[in-house]
Structures are given as C-alpha cells and as structure tokens.
Amino acid sequence: MTDCRIAPSILSADFARLGAEVENVLASGADMIHFDVMDNHFVPNLTFGAPVCKALRNYGVTATIDVHLMVDPVDRLIGDFLDAGADIITFHPEASAHIDRSLSLIKEGGAKAGLVFNPATPLAYLDYVMDKIDMVLIMSVNPGFGGQSFIPTALDKLRDARARIDASGRDIWLEVDGGVKVDNIKEIAAAGADTFVAGSAIFNHRRDDDPNGYDSVVRDLKAEAAKA
Ligand SMILES: O=C(CO)[C@@H](O)[C@H](O)COP(=O)(O)O
Ligand SMILES: [Fe+2]
Q: Where is substrate annotated to bind (predicted)?
C-alpha cells in the first residue's frame, strides 16, 4: 500500500496529561490525532468538546486534528470546532437532518469533511454527496467506547467503500475506526483502508524504554500495514 496514516484516538490517553500524551504520540511517529466527541445522546458516553481541541492548539499541537463527532444534532458544534482549529470534521449521517448542508458548513469553514458509517449503516448515504467528501470513516465497532473488538463485516464494507472512492476519481481518505491492532491492521489495509484510528492499541502499550513512549507500537502498526 502507498498511503498509511496512523491516527491515535486520545479517548484512551491519560486525560490528566493530555498535552504531553499528544506530544509523545506524535513524536513517536503518529501522523495525526483522532478526537472522539461523544454527547451521551447519539452514543452512550460523554467525552470532550471544542474547548479541549482549542487547548491542544494553545499547547502547541500543530498536527492534523481529526474530529469524529458522535453527537446529535451536528450543525451547531461544527462552528465551534472550526474555531477551535479542527482540520477534519466527520459526522454520522443519522445525526444530521441535512447532510449536504452539514458537509457544506464544514467545507466553507476551511476544514476537510467526512461521513462516518456505523457497522449497520449503508454506504448509500454517499450517493449524492461524493463531491463534498474528503474522508469516509468506516466504524469497525459500534461507537461509544474504546477497547472493543473489531467487527469482521467491516472488511467487506471497506472494500465497498474503496471501490466507490476509486470510481469517484477524487482524493478521499478511507479511515477505519475501532479494534485496530498490530495483529489485524495488515488485513484491514488489504481491504482498502489508508488511515487507521488506534486508541487502546497505542495508549495501552506505552513503553518506558521507547524515547517517546509509543515508538514501538506506532512503528509496528505501520510495518504491518505496509505488508498489505
Ligand atoms: O470512535 C471511537 C469509539 O466510538 C474510536 O475512535 C475509539 O476510541 C477507538 O478505540 P480502539 O477501538 O482503537 O481502542
Ligand atoms: Fe472515533
């Protein structure tokens, strides 16, 4: 495979040391930061909002911040995240009454836009908005929590999404989120993903003998993906 981006989900980071965790994981070779926003309504969990994204920017984080909105409704928060410095904003189509409008809000604000597909949500939502999409995010767990197991049917869905992206001729990233580990990333990459969210696989595998704590696991994820 050519592209391979590792996007650590800070959901599994130590929140009390968030700035340092982000700094360390980026210094370990991660390509971007995955920022999971949960509202205890669209998903049964509550995390953090735009002020935390802004705080990371103020701390000095310049890397791509990939905001995964698990909130309903979506539109009111888009402006907050654009102001907070988000580079990519993705949302679940079920959570927007006007998907085309939500995508336009993100793009007009200067960020990349994407749709997120739960395991049982059909890719048909892409049909009439492909020209506004910069990223397709395939959930390989039901959203709400880190540390769940990869749902194997996501592999077929990735292949389907890859075919749609290739047919579009556009530069659209195909991200996968949930249960990505060193021992399954090769198969996931072979199914067409180029951007890999990994939360527990990274933050639960800190090594004190690595210069930045996460060097070994980020290197192993990339090496396995490259074998696809
Ligand atoms: O969006 C979500 C969960 O809803 C994810 O981004 C998880 O945070 C990924 O965690 P792991 O499955 O990699 O531990
Ligand atoms: Fe996520």
A: 9, 68, 144-147, 177-179, 199-200
